[in-house]
Amino acid sequence: MMPHVQLPGHAAGWTSKDRAAVAAGIGDVCRRKGFFFVHNHGIPADLIRNAYVEMQRFYQLPLAEKRKYDATEQSQFLGYRGLGRERSRTHSGTEACEQYRIGNTTDELALPSSVDFYHAHFPKSLELFHHLTHLGDGILAACALDMGLAENFFTGYLDSPLHRLGLNYYGASHPSDVGSTVGYAMSPHIDLSLLTILDQDEPGLEVRDSDREWLEVPTVPGALFVFLADYVQRWSNGLHRAAPHRVSAVRRDRMSIQYKHRPDYGVVVRPLDTLTGPADPPTYAPLNTGPDYVTALRAILGR
Ligand SMILES: O=C(O)CCC(=O)C(=O)O
Ligand SMILES: [Fe+2]
């Protein structure tokens, strides 16, 4: 069963009362499942459509043009991840898709040879990014309330947040192009974010429910799909569940937009004292959103 939640309009306009109402609406589902659709989010449908138009245009460019935006250490792994670039974390091959990442860089990782991306191909996607940031902030505040924290608990960790907008393209021929030997286009994983907000133009996303059953996530016009990720699960010592997900082998070209709501560089995420104790010892190790994140990116993208 896919949970569906009605939101009180665009998150930029939410009051404390609205955030409390959202917390009441999602709390149980955050604890049991960690994924849900949101309706009435107030993000203009046009922006989402236009982001797909930009993606379509970009991915049709000649490879040499796309490679000018290659994701490297110099770009802090923002930009283009071509076919065969991202190694799977669960098998010996690569993910069967092309990707593009938009987001801010951090001075902490600036190199003498740094490149900065102006994301010239994606102006509408950038606009969408800002709307999704409001939604991410709003849902996170609701999560905080459900964890018994102040609604602004996470705000102190989001001064120069390294949010990421992922624009993925799964071509029908990509699995054979990369010599895929697995039955899915992206390997099962949980995201390295607080939470992720996703839209897809074709079904393909699957989430693993708490009974370990894989569920196909349908496309629901007007709704966005939200799932909780590593940092919320870790911070809450598992009170809120991160949703494992994967992308099935697609038969038709498919695109997805995933917005990953991420904290500052260098935040240590560890189970909260208020959610641990003799009866609930910490079950997650501390993780640093700076160096540990870079290590994870190098493992899948490093050359
Ligand atoms: O394309 C999708 O639906 C999911 C992609 C994904 O899980 C990711 O990029 O982290
Ligand atoms: Fe993911």
Automatic annotation (TrEMBL):
Domain Fe2OG dioxygenase spans what residues? 161-263
Q: In which pathway does it act?
A: Antibiotic biosynthesis
Q: Which InterPro entries did the record assign? A: DIOX_N, IPNS-like_FE2OG_OXY, IPNS-like_sf, Iron_ascorbate_oxido_reductase, Oxoglu/Fe-dep_dioxygenase_dom
Arranged from A to Z, the UniProt key words for this protein are: Antibiotic biosynthesis, Iron, Metal-binding, Oxidoreductase
Pfam families given for it? 2OG-FeII_Oxy, DIOX_N
Is the keyword Oxidoreductase in the record? yes
- Which PROSITE patterns does the entry link to? FE2OG_OXY
PANTHER family per the record? 2-OXOGLUTARATE (2OG) AND FE(II)-DEPENDENT OXYGENASE SUPERFAMILY PROTEIN-RELATED
What family does this chain come from, according to its entry?
A: Belongs to the iron/ascorbate-dependent oxidoreductase family.
**Protein name, as recorded:** 2-oxoglutarate and iron-dependent oxygenase domain-containing protein
